[in-house]
Protein 1
Amino acid sequence: MAEATLRTAPLDKARVLQWLQTYGVYAGVALLLVVNIVITPHFLSAENFRTQAVQVAPVIIVALGMALVIGTEGVDLSVGAVMALAASATALYLGYGLLPALLVVALFAAGVGLANGALVAFVGVQPIVATLALMVGGRGLALVLLPQLEDLRNPALASLGSGDALGFPYLILIAAGLALLVAFVVRRTTFGRQLLAIGDSRPAAELAGLPVRRVLILVYVACALLAAVAGVLATARLQASDPTSLGNLMELSAITAVVVGGTPLTGGRVNIAGTVAGAVLIQLLTATLIKHDLPPSWTQIAQAIVIVCAVYAARGRGKR
Amino acid sequence: MQRTTHRPHLLGRPVVVALAAAVALTATACAKSEDDASDGKQSGSSAAGAEQKAVEQKPGSKTCTIDAYGAEKLDLKGATVGFSQSEKEANPFRIAETQSIKDEAKKRGVKLLTANAQSQFSKQITDVQDLLAKGADLLVIAPLNSDGWDPVLQAAAAKKVPIVTIDRKINAEACKDYVSFIASDFVEQGRRAADQMIEATGGKGEVAILLGAAGNNVTTERTKGFKERVAEKAPDLKVVFEQTGDFAREKGQQVTEQLIQSKPGIKGIYAENDEMGLGAVAALKGAGKKAGDVKIITVDGTRNAVQGIVDGWISGVVESNPRFGPLAFQTLDTFTKGEAVPQDIVIEDGAYNTDNAKQDIGKAY
């Protein structure tokens, strides 16, 4: 399909770029699927797709929150730290049972989100700086609460991580549910509209009388809560709480997924389907390189190329 | 922070600090983790029979004496020893290492001053300078980096304080800038892991390596030793997969999941630390494999991994001994008495397999 469009269109750079911007990520996923089916042994199996989906689920969940924040022309660097904090808090409160532990995790995450949102909305700190503070502080707090990896044996938590319903692992169902929910919020609710309006122009949104501060705080809280969900799920899957390494560099994976998925960093637009596809694209790329036993440095280079392509396509849009 | 007069514009910082402390306190005050009821945790560092021994010195290896170094003789008993730890005691290795130094100091009746650099090199430099200022007669250093030690070495040399470095080396002249370096031989650990792998798999088939963090000397040396020994002793054992798991459990799990998808016939996995090995176990469990289907060999010797052998999921663990206390103090004792000590001391690492895991699990850290 990609080539057909390219050939029929006259040499219209802008249109090609626009097409790439909108559909490039899906074309990339399709291309990787085809290539893998041809060259990777045992790729075409339910087991394999299950593995890829389970591995990408936490990234998708974090990226959803990140997409919302980026939609307001912000960025949240603290998502990895929130995952670590969620892991610590889960281990610390699991003695009361899974549900109370999850409530405490939500409290912690909401706290971080509130701090982020308050710094951005009320104090007027740049999002990148505000969330950088919480990124450092959040992981620090996670390590104070739980200085080293702890194994968890709670059966409810274990089934959350590795159980399934109708053959679909809970992780995948939760990620899919959250993606639909976030897409609905962005497209169909007042909150979603306000969020995008703020991303388009915060002064204009303020002049129009939108509750800018409230919306910003809610967006950062939502992002932190989503990151906490991802942290709990990753912990459940590992059956161990590992605040030292859980969520390391997750902020970069999430931003990559969002940007590759066609959401501009300049705010005002959020592409949820693209974000999910962006995360899947990076996952498939990594899987391909690992399965063919290529050096890990290649994965980083390949990711860089994908990001550059995505940013190039986005640049074309920005000019119009 | 010491002052008690509260001027309004100074309130900001204390409030923030107090708030952070309050969060940490309230968060832990009513915490209840799974293990609270049956507190099965014990610090394995003081376990009996886990003494550290040095590997026999090769004839002709360099030694160092107190005269050559230019320090003065003293009695270790009653001396003050400064210990500078590099990383936060947040992993079993560092916990066991610090504990071992503390235990041995207590046993020998030595006054011990400790400092922890929390993975910040600049802090470690000031830590050691502080230890010197506080009157340490001897220093044991677990360096964070190999380079950048000149200011400390000069300060120590001015006070004629002998230095022993453990687990990582300082790039400086032995017997001039420091006395001895005590550590494991990581290449040898790789070789011994290969021996265990050959035994577990019968020397045939395809195996995978979960590499440690890239650009780390532990990773390169453990890989080198493993591959050398496999090539030399079991040419039929093929390393078909080498991917990094960054020494972390989650990454080990993810990479292993990809591995068993694309290479279902894999017979063994060599994980360059216990955490990645345990991640591999989680991945195999998730994929519905049975214990022992894939032979896993790991390096480190933490309690969790040795428990893995008892449970049947891990075939062998090569130990990387963190208990530097006895050997470090033994070296200092010999040295300060005026006798010669080797410049490079290699610790003897143990090993766990199905034969000894059950009775030796108490030795694991």
Protein 2
Amino acid sequence: MNILVLGPGCPKCTEAEKNVKTALQEAGVEASVEKISDFQEIAQMGVFSTPAVVIDGEIKCVGKVPSKSEVIDWVNL
Amino acid sequence: MELLNDINAEHESKAQPTKDTLGNTWFSKAKFLFAGLAGLVVWYVVYRQLLSFSQYFTYNILGLTPESHLGEAVEFFVYDTPKVLMLLTLVVFGVGIIRTFFTPERTRALLAGKRESAGNVLAAMLGIVTPFCSCSAVPLFLGFVTAGVPLGVTFSFLISAPMVNEIAVVLLYGLLGWKVAALYLGTGLLVAIVAGWVIGRLGMEKHMEDWVLELRANGAAVVEEHLTWSDRIKQGGVAVKDIVGKVWIYVIAGIAVGAAIHGYVPENFMASIMGKDAWWSVPAAVLVGIPMYSNAAGIVPVIYALLGKGAALGTVLAFMMSVIALSLPEMVILRKVLKPQLIATFIGVVGIGILLVGYLFNLII
């Protein structure tokens, strides 16, 4: 599983990345987590509000910090 | 019990609204409405008691002498701190709920295809209610540009979003009264509308970074969220925790300074430097404000202190707008999508707008 966290590096984006990582640990799921902070790359994915989380190419949330339990729901499917 | 489970299940899926679920949502709406009204009544009753409580506390419990320096300062602090915090909580909660109806994607869709002028007005208004932080300015800018929102309209949004915010308005209302708050709201919107319109007239499109112009996006990624009223109210609560939890310390510090000034500092202390007669004070206030970066919670108490010492309202409003609307960190971020000429134009046009507001108020008030 490949997870992208999109965000330029503001506190909210860092929080999103942290929530994703703890969620993975708690769910016991192996996945690579990559932080994308380049605006051009983010915009090309059609994301215009950050933070956003993309799992295996599918955009899961935009413009808000996902909670830990939300991320657990996404990775457990 | 089974019935209850059924209701819950239906409530959560709510895919196809049947008569039953409609009845339920109506019922839960009514429930929230009553709870909200009851909460408001309690809020109002407590709010009305604050003044007499602060006087009772200062002069009866602490035993300070009325009209003494210390007594006035303490009464002021004990009155204004809960007053401003209560106002802030109420407004942040309300705005938090309103914001669940506006996402950047929805605002983008609303503004796409709008002509200038009407578009500038709409963009400035949406700037107040769309959730926004300065770090999301660039993705949002790209979103607007790729959706075909005119550059000037985009700027109206980018100017109004940080400048006209609920914290600034509440603090101004709480400390300086509704006239100053309304003036700030009105002129902030006006600066955003006019400055955006002027930038649009200047035809600066070629001064965006080249890759921005080549960017073609097939519409924004939207993750549909079906929010129930309880979700929206929860979001309001989250906003209160986030914002009030972060700014209360500035508010209290600011009011403490204000209280000290109220009790001790002679009036007209600042009149010679920031008073009406010092014509150069408005441009100086704007220039000093540009590199300064502070949120509204940090700056309003300073404003309050300056006004208390005899600074002119126009000068002070210009200073506040300059600090909040033109910030160095935001310029650094915008530099990634805008060439220096456009950034300079942006600062210039907004700066002149703020300057005019400052002079106007010094002239008429």
Protein 3
Amino acid sequence: MASNLVQITRRGFGETMRRDGWWIPSLLTFLGFSAFIVYSTWAAFQGEHYSFGPYLSPMYSPLIWEAAGQPLSHHSWLGAWPAWLPTYLLVQPITPAILILWAPGGFRFTCYYYRGAYYKAFWADPPACAVGEPRNEYRGEKKFPLILQNVHRYFLYIALLFIVILAYDAIAATQFADGFGIGVGTLVMTINVILLASYTFGCHSLRHLVGGRCDTMSNKPVQHKLWQWVSKLNGKHMLFAWLSLFWVGFTDFYIRMCSMGSFTDYRIF
Amino acid sequence: MKATFSIRRGGSEGGELVDYRTEVTEGMVVLDAVHQIQAESAPDLACRWNCKAGKCGSCSAEINGKPKLMCMTRLDTIDITQPVTIEPMRAFPPIKDLATDVSWNFEVKKRIKKFKPRKPDAEDGTWRMQQSDVDRVQEFRKCIECFLCQDVCHVLRDHNKHAEFAGPRHYVYTAALEMHPLDTENRIDELKNDFGIGYCNITKCCTKVCPEHITITDNAIIPLKERVVDEHFDPLAKLVKLFRKK
């Protein structure tokens, strides 16, 4: 491809003949992602108010060990925070959330939808379609570091495990001290896992792995059906990416507020 | 009602926007206005067109900064109270006025390995395949080669990577071949090394401008990227393949 080179005139940053509000989607994406990053980082470093009765915040699930200094709850898989694990790394506390959030964080960071969205909103690469860019050099995802985005399917495998765990949490959220029941928090957690599953099961990598990699699917009816289902969800991947992102934050917020006594969790029955 | 159209005039060395005023009526598209301007005041205005039905892919241009087909852009969908800018595609060298040299695309296409079917299924030299297996690639066959996707792609228009990057149109073409149930050729190494699919950072601009509404990014480029991952970036998949071979 070294022959037949085309020379074009490059535009400056933000230069465009577009007259519409091309900057609005990127700005909204920037604000939306920033708000989530700020809130989730803050919540992850708290190490308290992450559970309330049968509810466990999705940002702390799976709760491998109970956070240091917190009373032991039935949510913890391996009991209290072990003595061999430090509670601080320099000035930042290490919490149960810090131990696990790299997995869903990595899944979203390497997600094909998010990539396209944050390249535009945070790197201006490009700021919007047919709008000039700030940099001359461009490496794309062909070279380090963004070539590492190809690890996405490995994060998918972990994300699928998280869906199972969060589904278990939603079922466990019906087990109150006085027996089976459904509270507002149960609904919040159930909606959370449904939205997360809709996002995860619509993943482009999953679409490829369940059948997209085959050129002939007519002789593989199970794979063909799975591919069709994943393709349907994939068509709404952006919608579920945003809904699930918002709802994860809201679920944590709701449980945190209940735990702090700011919200009353009403029982439906 | 009269409207003003700022049309790029000039040759390969440079050009400028020149204003033309012309009468517009209900149902007109941008190409109608350009033809009217040619007839009234600029008979030497160069512009490619052919079918006036959005099927030949000749009248690609940038209207108010957005890559569009002139014949499919109705004037009632754009603001004609201000001058409407009409420019040639930026990702290709201008020849004259609105005409650009898109020959690079045809050169790239020649380099993509051609369709190589398996041995015929029947003695009469014909093949059998299921409709459900070709449904996926039929979407790609809708491409009219207007090159609007190539034009809007920032890898070409802003970074001038024509030497290393094939562009969305050619990924659609490659996907149509790669996913074809009869095809036996492998183009994955070329996609990664020669056609630079790694440069695509999934902005989806190509999908947004496609007049045939081909879901270029989700249905062609990302599945091809995943096939590249299979062969080059997934050690587990390689291991599974190794065991299957044994």
